[in-house]
Structure to design on (321 residues):
């Protein structure tokens, strides 16, 4: 396994980043849908209320709304993130120590991680807008009317409403239609709604992500070895994901609310107004809505992410040598 700060080549980073991105989406998307709905819809009283309501109204499909766009773009985004991280780290090491293969300091890893988080925002913001709006778009329920019956113990029966008033269909018919509709109705600005919160979220969380993974790998490396074993990678990857999402969750809540707010009459004038209004109406705890889900999702996802990451790097090193 490779040392957390270094890798065989930038291309290996990009290839492994694409592999691990698809793996992460496949594991965590249903929990992400529940998280987004809890963050943006105050009517849900908790995780299980949201899970049950989503399943009752939309069945299993409801948890996978908008999945196709992240699956199609996650390889590119993850490759860009890990490629940017390695590229920045190599340049920093070359500038500070004279060699790209020198062992980086913790500040080098932090700065490179921060840069990788910032770069991905330009690609992820439009896809995040489409994903969040599709995840929060619930299927309208057909109206029903009650027929009363006579008698003290009679129970009113329920029957479908008479035809003639069709139930309105969903506004968005898929990721591409959602992107086209947002661009037509709200312009380019609509596709990048919430990007300021996304910049704060990804910049700090990716700095935390890569730094914590490097530190944990060092701590979990057995004496006499240069690298942690598979169990060490699993623990380091899972904990790094949890720590990153603990940092990211407040801005993740604001980002989701700003992106959903673009539909119809807008409530929020910007990031600070959204934060102040949300805290005023729901208390400081609102900034940590979805934290439990984020952490539960982050641990297994990032265990899989970093084991895949290290395995691909090891395979690439073997092919190159």
């Amino acid at each position: 396994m490779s040392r957390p700060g270094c890798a065989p080549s930038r291309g290996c980073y990009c290839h492994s980043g694409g592999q691990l991105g698809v793996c992460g989406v496949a594991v965590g998307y249903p929990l992400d849908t529940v998280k987004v709905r809890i963050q943006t819809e105050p009517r849900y009283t908790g995780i299980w209320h949201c899970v049950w309501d989503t399943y009752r109204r939309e069945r299993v499909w409801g948890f996978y709304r908008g999945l196709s766009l992240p699956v199609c773009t996650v390889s590119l985004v993850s490759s860009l993130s890990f490629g940017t991280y390695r590229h920045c780290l190599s340049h920093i090491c070359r500038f500070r120590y004279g060699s790209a293969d020198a062992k980086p300091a913790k500040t080098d890893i932090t700065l490179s991680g921060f840069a990788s988080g910032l770069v991905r925002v330009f690609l992820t913001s439009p896809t995040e807008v489409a994903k969040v709006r599709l995840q929060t778009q619930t299927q309208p329920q057909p109206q029903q009317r009650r027929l009363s019956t006579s008698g003290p113990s009679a129970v009113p029966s329920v029957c479908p409403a008479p035809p003639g008033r069709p139930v309105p269909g969903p506004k968005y018919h898929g990721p591409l239609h959602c992107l086209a509709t947002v661009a037509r109705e709200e312009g380019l600005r609509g596709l990048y709604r919430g990007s300021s919160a996304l910049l704060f979220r990804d910049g700090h969380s990716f700095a935390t992500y890569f730094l914590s993974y490097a530190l944990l790998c060092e701590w979990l490396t057995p004496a006499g070895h240069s690298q942690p074993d598979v169990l060490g990678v699993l623990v380091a990857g899972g904990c790094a994901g949890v720590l990153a999402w603990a940092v990211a969750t407040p801005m993740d809540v604001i980002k989701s609310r700003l992106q959903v707010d673009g539909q119809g009459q807008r409530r929020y004038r910007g990031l600070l107004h959204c934060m102040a209004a949300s805290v005023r109406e729901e208390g400081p705890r609102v900034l940590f809505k979805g934290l439990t889900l984020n952490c539960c999702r982050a641990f297994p996802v990032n265990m899989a992410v970093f084991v895949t990451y290290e395995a691909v790097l090891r395979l690439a090193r073997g092919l190159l040598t």
Q: What stands out?
A: The chain has nine helices and two strands. The chain has a mean pLDDT of 83. The CA atoms of residues 141 and 167 lie 8 Å apart. Strands lie at 144-147, 157-160.
